[in-house]
Amino acid sequence: MQVGYYPGCSLESSAKEFDLSIRAIFQEMGISLKEIPDWNCCGASPAHYLNEELASALPYRNLVRAEEAGLEKVVSPCPACYSHLKHIHEEAMKDAYLAERVRTIVGKMYQGKVQSKHLLDFLKEDVGLERLKSALKTSLNGLRVVSYYGCLTRLPGVNIDDVENPVMMDEVLQALGGETINWSHKTECCGASLSITRTEIALRLVHAILESAQEKGAECIAVVCPLCQSNLDTRQGDINKKYGTQFNTPILYLSQLIGLTQNLGSNQLGLDRLVYSPTEILLKRGIIEK
Question: What's the mean per-residue pLDDT of the chain?
Answer without folding.
Answer: 95
